[in-house]
Every structure is written in C-alpha cells, then in structure tokens.
UniProtKB/TrEMBL annotation:
Helicase ATP-binding domain: residues covered: 48-212
Phylogenetic placement of the source organism: Eukaryota, Viridiplantae, Streptophyta, Embryophyta, Tracheophyta
GO process annotations (BP): mRNA processing; RNA splicing
Family to which this protein belongs: Belongs to the DEAD box helicase family. DEAH subfamily. PRP2 sub-subfamily.
Portion of the full-length sequence here: 359 to 1030 of 1030
Annotated EC: 3.6.4.13
Keyword terms, alphabetized: ATP-binding, Coiled coil, Helicase, Hydrolase, mRNA processing, mRNA splicing, Nucleotide-binding, Spliceosome
Helicase C-terminal domain boundaries: 237-411
Protein name per Swiss-Prot or TrEMBL: RNA helicase
Catalytic activity: ATP + H2O = ADP + phosphate + H(+)
Record-level Gene Ontology MF annotations: ATP binding; hydrolase activity; RNA binding; RNA helicase activity
GO cellular component: catalytic step 2 spliceosome
Length: 672
C-alpha cells in the first residue's frame, strides 16, 4: 500500500498543477469572451481603419462600451507600439486610472507594471517594457516638461474629455500643437457624452466616431416634495428598494468620503432592525478616491447568490468607472464642487446641485444590462427649473497659478493667446500671474525666473513648492520636505473615534506642544516620531494616527527627495530644533496667507481683509491667548471661513521673505 501511495504522489501533484493551469486558462478564456461582448468590439476594425486614415479622432460612446479598457489594447495588438513608442491613455481621476489598468493587465494576462502600467502623482508603476501607459492627465502634463514633443509616444488618448478637468483642457491645447508638427502622432479623444461637436470644432473638424450604445429604458422617479435631509432619504430609499424590488444591484451617488462612511454606518444600523424577517443579504461597497486599492476591487465582485449589492460612490461612478449589474440608481442630486474666486482668493469645496447632464448620466448607469430604474431624491420641477444644463469647466472655477507656472515652464509665455477649449476668465489669469510674481517665480516681464523653474519641477501647489525652494536658504530642506509630504498625503492624519474623542484630542495636542508649536511643526513631529518608531502600527494606534496617511507621506517624501536633487537643493536639516528656520521657509511660500488677530479668536486676512477663524481641527484653535500673526495653508469655506494648518509667525519675517510684497506700513495695524 505504501509503495502504491508513493507511486501516485507525483502524479497527483502534476494533476494539481495541471488543474491550476487549466483554471488560469479558463479564466483567461472567460475574460476573452467578456471582451467580445462589449459594444466597442463590433466596431474594432472600423475604428482601427478610421484611426489609420485620420490623425485625430473623437470617439464617443456610452459609459461601459469599452473605450478605456479596449481601445488601447486594440492599438497595441494592431502594432502601434511595435516601433518602441508607447500609447498614453489619460484619466482625470487617479482611482479610475488605477482601477482600469488592473483590469487591462488581467485581460492581457500580464503583470501590472510590465507591458501595461500606470503613472499617477507620487506613484509610478511602469517599466522599460511598458507599452500601454494609463496615467492621470496631470502626469502627462508633467511629462511635457521633459519631452515637449512627446517623442516616446505614438498614440495619445485623452480619455474622459467630457469631464473637462483643468489638466485635460490644457492637454488638449498642447497636443493639438504637437500634432501639427508630428504627423506620425495619433490623437484620440474619448468622451461619454454625445456632445462632441465642441471637441470636433476645436480640432479643426476632426471626425467623430460613434459607438452605438446598448441602452435600455430607464424609469425615472422623482420625489414629490424636496427632501430636507438627502442622506436620510437615501438610506430609506436604498433599504426600501432592497426589500421591495426584484434582484439587481443598487448604485447610490454621494458627495464624499465622510458622507459615504456615515451612510454605510447608517445603513448597517437600520438594516439590523429588520433582522429576524426574511430579508436577503445586502453587501455594502463604498468607493471614493482615497479608498485603499484592495477595497476598490471589491465593487466589481458580484454579490453572492441571493444577495444584493449596494455601491455607495462619489461622482467617480458617473462615467469613469463602470460597475456591471446595476439596475437601480439612487441620486440625491448633489456633488462636491471646487470653486475659486480670484476676487476673494478663497477656494472652496462645497456641496452643490449637479447639472442636468450629470443627472442623466447617473440615471443611465441603471440601464446598461437591462431596463433600469432611477430614483431622484429631488423634484421634477427642480430638475427642469433649478439645475444647470452643463457643469462649468473646471478651468473657469479654479486657481490657475499652478497651470500658468507649468505653461510658463513649457515656454508658453502669452497666456491670452493659448489655445483653450474654453478660455478662463482673464481676471483669474491675471490673479495667477500676480501670485507667481509675488512668489518670485516670474520677473516683472512675466518671464520664468530660476526660482520659478525650480518650482515648476516640483509637482506641488506653487506656494508649497516655493516653501521648499526657500528652505535652501534657511538650511532646513529635510524638515520642509517632510511637512510638504504630510500636507500632500491628505487631510486625514489623525482619527478621532467618537467614544475616545477626548483622549484622541489630547494625544494630538502633544505633537504641537499644546498648540503653541503650530500645525506645521505638529506634522513634522508626527512624521519624525513615526520614523523613529520604525513605522510601527502600534505607535500609530497609540497616537490616533492613520497608518495609511503615513505610508503615503513616506512615498511622497521619497519622490520629493529625488526631485530635490534634480533642482539642486541640498538636503539639510536644522536639527537641534531651530523651528523658526522652518517657519520662515513656510512663510516664504505662504506669506500671502497671512492673517492678523483682530479680537478674541477672530482673524482678518492681511491682503483680502476677510474675517476668518482658525479651524477647530487646528492645535491652535484652543490656544489662549491665540497668536497675533499666523500663516495658514488653506482657507476652507463652510458656514464660516476657516484657516487650516496654521502656524504663528513674526510680522518682521514678512518683510524678510517678501519685501516686494509687504512694506512696513502694511503691518502696523493697531493692537486689537
Ligand atoms: P468605458 O471606458 O467605455 O466607459 P470601460 O472600458 O471602462 O468602458 O469598461 C468596459 C467593461 O470593463 C465594463 O463592463 C466594466 O465593468 C469592466 N471593467 C472595467 N474595469 C474593471 C475592473 N477593474 N474590474 C472588473 N471589471 C472592470
Ligand atoms: Mg472610460
């Protein structure tokens, strides 16, 4: 018996190995079959023919037709990368780039980062092998700095052009120019909306290739009266659909991470009330920009048999990501909109009603695989009367300093004659030029200075970039780079569990020496101590610090360090703790964000005379007495205007770091 067993063993093993290979081959075949069912597949030859015949093409097709995942593969298979040139496919959103590329690598049966890779800010997953490169539009914009003719690319696909992000709009102007002197470059624009004429006009009547979508009928339901609390109404609607409607997944549109998280909790809480009755399982899948990658994949997994999936998504699910199997859409009709006013210089991220075009896109998500239903949590009257037809392009509601700096670095001096799809308001451009001049990035003739050139190399907001450049003078580049990395890693450095809020607050106060050291120093201290702990998860737990944010900060820091070398800034530390050096460098970048205390806890911004408060999350919020002079990282507008990430400064520093901007007499306002 023993010999028999020994004899069969190796065979068993090969069998198992064989099974594994079979399973893999089967999965690959399945993916292959799925690819063939996508609407774009039937038009593959026609599309390739059109691309061969025209240099520039606009591709229009319903979300989910396969534009993003398939077209780059078709071009790769058709030999467009055979000459060693790459295909770029840009996305306005990081998550979309990452999620789509994972799928494409799977379909091609290659490891992510080999033939297919992606590049997003602070994260590069490509190699020499990479032929198909997904990237954010902002990253391709940065590549122009090193390669103004995009020589390493044979095809550029500007995907999701209808989103009209600032970077997409600038890209369109730049690639139009490159296409003129590089007849070998193929340019594709893809858009999910049928309103492609604008792009066609912009590209001198480039042909529009339409991929007819499968779209089933969608029943639209409105509320009779406006909802007082849309989150509450959304939870009720989702649960009611779950109990009363036939199988099919639900997609709920919300405005951001925090709202999604509380809604998840609320659904869980109210769902358990129904326990005991025979209600099918409800699988809850959130998706938003900062969700860890492992969890992002979950939204694509089908719910187990008998269960229903509800996806809680931000705008990202409107056109960038397609989730199969959605039969019901719940749309409260809101999204977060960034807006900027050059007059007040305040940037705000506010929850606003969406446009009709957005509402229609959202509804369409339910009718991809069969007839769908869309439940709008607003009235038909408000759809018809209150909602704008289209969303205003981001370029017309953004701070343009960063864009203008990039364009100047590309040698584009005259902003007014740049070929914009929709030009930004001249007031905004002027404001950006003034700001860059104040930062020393431009000279009085509007030309890029050496400082400006260095700033443009850093993928950061110009003010933060300036702080890093200035840190050279104060011998504290190490510290300022750490602070910049922490500021870029996201707002969620600390967490605050409801049942331990006081302990968490106390733990947090320690990092800023009870508030007096300032928020920038607090970020520096958090990072330094985390490093010293050996990146310990326990340390994070003990101090209520989010490990994910810290890991991201470390990644950002590594990249910034490499860039320091490129712009020839020596890595120096003001060790021994001369924090005033660090504060001065920060002030050199953020001097325009100076506020002076008027009375109590009320501050006034020095340049725009706005009344602002210190954000409650700041270590300084409870300092008594509050400092008289502060610089802040940003101004956020909610019910009031709040300054976030605040540090005390001495007014005479302003004369030192920005003598062309501040004179003595600006500063001697009477004591409060
Ligand atoms: P389009 O760009 O035209 O909107 P896509 O190419 O993004 O379409 O999507 C085509 C199909 O690929 C969709 O059915 C979508 O569900 C699927 N898909 C895309 N990304 C993933 C992913 N990460 N996991 C699973 N399926 C995906
Ligand atoms: Mg797409």
């Amino acid at each position: 018996k023993a010999t028999a067993m020994a004899g069969t063993e190796p065979e068993d093993e090969t069998d198992e190995l064989g099974d594994e290979i079979d399973a893999k081959a089967m999965m690959q075949r399945e993916l292959e079959d799925q690819r063939k069912t996508l609407p774009v597949y039937k038009f593959k030859d026609e599309l390739l023919k059109a691309i061969a015949e025209h240099q520039i093409i606009i591709v229009v097709g319903e979300t989910g037709s396969g534009k993003t995942t398939q077209i780059p593969q078709y071009l790769h298979e058709a030999g467009y990368t055979a000459n060693g040139r790459k295909i770029a496919c840009t996305q306005p959103r990081r998550v979309a780039a990452m999620s789509v590329v994972a799928r494409v690598a799977q379909e091609m049966g290659v490891k992510l980062g080999h033939e297919v890779g992606y590049s997003i800010r602070f994260e590069d997953c490509t190699s020499e092998k990479t032929a198909v490169k997904y990237m954010t539009d902002g990253m391709l914009l940065r590549e122009f700095l090193g390669e103004p003719d995009l020589a390493s690319y044979g095809v550029v696909i500007v995907d999701e052009a209808h989103e009209r992000s600032v970077s997409t709009d600038i890209l369109l102007g730049l690639v139009k120019d490159v296409a003129r002197f590089r007849p070998d470059l193929k340019l594709l624009l893809s858009s999910a909306t049928l309103n492609a004429d604008k792009f066609s006009d912009f590209f001198d009547m480039a042909p529009v290739f339409k991929i007819p979508g499968r779209r089933y009928k969608v029943d639209i339901h409105y509320t009779v009266a406006p909802e007082a609390d849309y989150v509450d109404a959304a939870v009720a609607t989702v649960l009611q659909l779950h109990v009363t409607q036939p199988p099919g997944d639900i997609l709920l549109f919300l405005t951001g991470q925090e709202e999604i998280e509380t809604t998840v909790e609320e659904i869980l809480r109210r769902r358990t009330r129904g326990l005991g009755t025979k209600i099918a399982e409800l699988v809850i899948c959130p998706i938003y920009a900062n969700l860890p990658t492992e969890l992002q994949a979950k939204i694509f997994e089908p719910a187990p048999p008998g269960a229903r999936k509800v996806v809680l998504a931000t705008n990202i699910a409107e056109t960038s990501l397609t989730i199969d199997g959605i039969s019901y859409v719940v749309d409260p009709g809101f999204c977060k909109v960034k807006s900027y006013s050059p007059r007040t210089d305040a940037e705000s991220l506010l929850v606003r009603p969406i446009s009709k075009a957005s509402a229609d896109q959202r509804a369409g998500r339910s009718g991809r695989t069969g007839p769908g239903k869309c439940f709008r949590l607003f009235t038909e009257h408000s759809y018809r009367q209150d909602m704008a037809d289209d969303t205003v392009p981001e370029i017309q509601r953004s701070n343009l300093a960063s864009v203008v700096l990039s364009l100047k670095a590309l040698g584009i001096n005259d902003m007014v004659s740049f070929d914009f799809v929709d030009p930004p308001a001249s007031e905004g451009l002027l404001r950006a030029l003034e700001d860059l001049f104040a930062l020393g990035a431009l000279n009085s003739r509007g030309e890029l200075t050496k400082t400006g050139r260095r700033m443009a190399e850093l993928p950061l907001d110009p003010m933060l970039a300036k702080a890093i450049v200035a840190s050279e003078r104060y011998g504290c580049s190490e510290e300022v780079v750490t602070i910049a990395s922490m500021l870029s890693a996201g707002n969620a450095v600390f967490y605050r569990p409801k049942d331990r809020a006081l302990v968490a607050d106390a733990a947090r106060q320690v990092f800023s020496a009870g508030g007096s050291a300032g928020d920038h120093a607090a970020l520096l201290n958090v990072y330094t101590e985390w490093e010293q702990s050996g990146h310990s998860a326990q340390w994070c737990a003990d101090h209520f610090v989010q490990p994910r944010t810290m890991r991201r900060a470390r990644d950002v820091r590594e990249q910034l360090e490499a860039l320091l070398e490129r712009v020839e800034i020596e890595r120096r530390s003001c060790s021994g703790g001369d924090l005033d050096a660090v504060r001065k460098a920060i002030t050199a970048g953020f001097f325009r964000n100076t506020a002076q205390r008027r009375r109590d806890r009320l501050y006034r911004t020095l340049k725009t005379w706005r009344t602002v408060f210190v954000h409650p999350s700041s270590g300084m919020a409870r300092l008594d007495p509050p400092p008289r002079w502060v610089v802040y990282h940003e101004l956020v507008e909610t019910s009031n205007e709040y300054t976030r990430q605040v540090t005390e400064i001495k007014p005479e520093w302003l004369l030192e770091v920005a003598p062309h901007y501040y004179q003595e007499n600006n500063l001697d306002a009477p004591e409060p």
